[in-house]
Amino acid sequence: MFKLQMTRRSVLASMAAAGLSAGFYPKASLSQDGKVLRVRAYSDIQNLDPAFRKSSPEDDVMRNIFPGLATMKPGDAWQWELDSATKLEQVDPTHIEFTLIDGLVWSDGHGPVTAEDVKFSFERMIDPALDSPYKGDWAALDHVEVQDEKSGVIVLKEPFPPLWNVGLVFGSGRIVSKKAVEAAGGKFDTKPPAQCGRYSIKEWLPKQRLVLVRNPEWPGQPGAFEEIHVIPIEDEKTAELGLEAGDLDYTWVAVSSIPRYRETPPKGGKIIVKPSLAYVWLGMNQEKAPFDKLEVRRAVQHAIDVPTVLEAAYFGAAEPATGLIAPGLLGHREKNIYGYDPDKARDLLKQAGLANGFDCTLDILNKAERVSAAQALQANLADVGINVEIRQHDSGTFWSIGDQKSGDTWKTIQLLMQRFSMQPDPSFATEWFTPEQIGVWNWERWNSPEFGELNAKAKVETDNAKRNEMYIKMQDLMEESGSYVFLTHEAVGVGYRDAVEPALLPNGTPIFYGFKPAG
Amino acid sequence: MLAYAVRRAGLAIAITAVALTILIAMIQLIPGDPAAVLLGPLASQEMRESFRVQMGLDQPAIVQMTRFFGRVLRGDLGTDVLTNRPVLDTVLDQLPFTLTLIFFSIGWSALLGIPLGCFSAIRRGTWADSIVGVLSVGAIALPSFVVAIYSLLFFSVMLGWFPTIGAGEPGKPLDQLHHLVLPSLAVGLGWVGYLARMVRASMLEVLSENHIRMARAFGLRESVITFRYALKIAIIPTVVLLGIGVGHMISGAVFAEIVFARPGVGRLIFDSLATRNYPVVMGAVMVTTIFYVLSTLCADLIAASLDPRVRANL
């Protein structure tokens, strides 16, 4: 009979062998046989209902599992293209005709995708009972007329150009199954009751991954990869290491890492830099002394040397901004009105009776580049006699400090550094600075009825040239108010493996179904 | 012994209740409106209000506390306000990953730390003892996130031996083990040093006692004296330390779970705190508190069963 002989020496040898074997264990390769694409999402999915999605990783997933009439085209320019429609045409300023492609079928036996589904999907976005946070994307929608099983007309109450840049092409334009969603009680969370896209969800393991598998019933061009693994990784540095080690095929990298990767690209990978749509600015609360004086606000505008601030925070990877709206978009401004001039800043402070300077606070989010930028701003302002105390907040605290309904901290804000992101329509950038937004997202508490009026008019203006002028004028008003110093639009660093050919929107947003094996 | 176990179990329940009461009180002090953070910039005021009601944030702290304990007694930890999943499901999804990491970490650190401590004690005052001492203190001083980052850079990026992210393919134990190596190195390394120092100190105390001198006088082999007589006594404080260590490792696991993008309760609490998802924070902290209290209780009971002097004082 076999008898196990265990000696101290044999146990130690076995342990050593086991330890060494880990080193030789075959590592899970990326894009195994070109079948699996492994991409990073900066957060886990929380809600896949187009009416209640929480963040862009959900948009990235929804684009693959729900059809839409139109979608943004991968490339370097913001252009839309047909998605699951053969026709999408604005026949007059308030009527858009559409026809769905043939062969679209919902999963789980919910039948074909019909114009009724389109009507249900778009009208539920403005349903007061549902109270979707994205109702603004369809603010001008009156109703959808169904003509036959595949065709219909989107009827607007008034012309609404943002629909083409936001509502129709992003998450709010995804179509859901009327039958399935109604059966689920009118809305859903992380388990879509029916899917119809180039991919469908195979499994979701919270905090681990979401697996998309190619949909064999998709009537159009199939996705190049059999499976797409969407891996939630909050920490940017971990994701960068994952890319370098070959465990990820695609990720965004930290802006501060871009210069390092420009010098030394990751082995077996590439880094490209895309212009971001985000906008970062230094704001001043007009209701809090001494920033209630225009001279003081203007002095701050003249005291800031934006390129120096950006060098400190982004190591040369980000360009100075000339307003809210990024280059390449309608409404982009070519230059700022007030530039760096510390002598003028000192004169203005003297005029305001603050020749000896003053102390104030600067509220920021506790992210590395924000802290570095704040320190550079602090140095710039100290140069003209303004002593800044930097107050760092975690995201949970920061995003409500200016909200009047969340307590009294809004009363203490003096300077603040903010970063908002946007969709590729200028209306998305300007709507937070209207008088109605004071105490909600207008934390500078800048009250300009003229700005509010222009914002409302620009939203419905169909002449692009006039619209462009309106948005430029609105940014001029912001700068003239003295409450804003436009800093940067940042930049997006995108990293991917050589084995992959990514499909990216102009700002680096991934279109997973468009990714292909390289070559 | 039974009465002692019952008394300690009662105390464990009281500790859990006090810890949770403190947690709820602390949550009231955290700045930031959960409704604003969770619902985002586009949410209407009506949505925010209805959300506050749904989370019970419109109620005084004492009411929130009573409701929470009432639900816990019914086995309901509430609902994750982001995904609408039961908090218990969310926590139980993540708990096995954290437990695996902790037990694997404590396991290898005990396997290495205890023999190192014995070795160091036996060779007291020699260069070998000095080297072990320096390495042990160095290991204790290294923060786990530093070990995590450098082990990733060296073993994953440079050598390509281990994966950088995740917990491995579900249903593939070897792959999961492969993904466990570096995180458990990061979590357990400090404990190797800690255990080595602890065992060395205990061993030195025991080795100087009369019964050991007596054993030597009888001519017993040194290995028998060390492992059969001295270690058996010296290990008792270490067992208690391991019990507490298991609880402490939960906090070490938070860093490892974030750096290695591993699922787990630590990362769940961290993410939920950032988004002010309080039902998940409370549910997850409750589970980890219970786990901590249970591990300490087990350590006390094991120490009592091993040491007749402790039993005699019960």
Helix segment tally of chain A? 15
* SSE order of chain B: HHHHHHHHHHHHH
Number of strands of chain B: 0
Task: Look at the helices and sheets of chain B and give the structural class.
Answer: mainly alpha
Relevant CATH superfamily of the largest domain in chain A: Dipeptide-binding Protein, Domain 3
Query: Globular, elongated, flat, extended or rod-shaped: what is the shape of chain A?
Result: globular
Strand content of chain B: under 5%
CATH topology tier name of the largest domain in chain B: MetI-like fold
CATH class of the largest domain in chain A: Alpha Beta
Give the largest chain-chain interface (CB within 8 Å). Answer: A-B, 52 and 59 residues
Helix count from the secondary structure assignment of chain B: 13
CATH class of the largest domain in chain B: Mainly Alpha
Sheet having the most strands of chain A: 5 strands, mixed
Shape of chain B: globular
Approximate helicity band of chain A: 25-40%
Name the quaternary structure: heterodimer
The third-level CATH topology of the largest domain in chain A is Dipeptide-binding Protein, domain 3
Percent of residues in β-strands of chain A: 15-25%
